[in-house]
Target: putative thioredoxin reductase
Amino acid sequence: MKKVYNIAIIGGGPGGVASAVEAVILGIDDVILLEKGENHSTTIRKFYKDNKRVDKDYKGQRVELNGNIYFVDGTKESTLDLFDEILNLHRIEERFNTEVESVVKKGELFLITTTQGDEVWAKFVIISIGKMGQPNKPSYEIPLALKDRVHFNVSDCKENEKILVVGGGNSAVEYAYFLADLNKVTLNYRKTTFTRVNEPNMALLNEYAQGGKLELRLGVDIVSLEEAEGKPKVNFSDGKSEMYDRVVYAIGGMAPMDFLRKCSLEVDEHGVPLTSETHEGSVSGIYIAGDILFKSGGSIAAALNHGFSIVQEIKKQLV
Ligand SMILES: Cc1cc2nc3c(=O)[nH]c(=O)nc-3n(C[C@H](O)[C@H](O)[C@H](O)COP(=O)(O)OP(=O)(O)OC[C@H]3O[C@@H](n4cnc5c(N)ncnc54)[C@H](O)[C@@H]3O)c2cc1C
Model:
């Protein structure tokens, strides 16, 4: 029997931490927090300097805290300590190193899939992924001269080009067969088999590969990228090199707007998700908290308040 959580929270920054802690304080059980970093609050850990002053009323945005989390002016360290303390005190079930790839409604429930291929089922979902997430980049250097020829999504790709798509997850496969209708595409994955790709994508990939519409280059890594005649020259670990018009990487770390679209959530022209007064997105049962609710701005205190008000709303609906 699969376990069904009452609430699955995606993103362990202030919005996600507050949602989890306030839910437990309200008496909601079976709450899980899914975070792609090694610990909660990746944005604060990664982008704040050590000993940085943390203002409650950030950049003059005065916010009255409504919930139970006693957040005050302090430092990076005191803020992280506060979140450590409340997560431990309320025994929140956390899964770190867990990047959520998609959220799909299946009847009354949500199926949440991670990039490792794990599945989590929940009655309600709160998304608080912030705005600092960026697509993952390869470890080798991408020459500056190739910046218009190397991409992390397909929006700048054209027609009748020779394109290399790099990656082994659903996004890489989806990019590959999408581009293959109008281009000559090779899909490169460093492993020999695809273990994280869902069934419909796998079926389409096989159809394209067997029909000669898509070339597969598996079990080979890329060691470096060079610029040659203005185009990317890709050097593979088996000693071969090949020139392409473009290289598209899909190696994890989706940009927030792409993630929201993948969850079937409608966004406005600025990429801000459309939400009701209760912060419910265009898919009923998915709520949004934190920085992604703002075109620009946002603060820790605002994210904490979102978490508090969302779980009160969910509590009313949980029978
Ligand atoms: C340099 C800097 C200084 C700042 N100083 C202040 C300040 O002094 N006071 C203040 O109030 N605010 C400050 N802010 C703003 C504040 O950090 C944000 O408003 C706040 O962190 C927003 O919280 P959030 O939960 O919306 O998003 P975030 O804190 O960005 O958290 C999002 C979390 O989601 C995770 N995540 C992303 N994608 C996925 C996925 N697909 N699956 C699983 N997990 C995922 C990320 O790893 C991250 O941990 C500052 C921001 C910066 C960049």
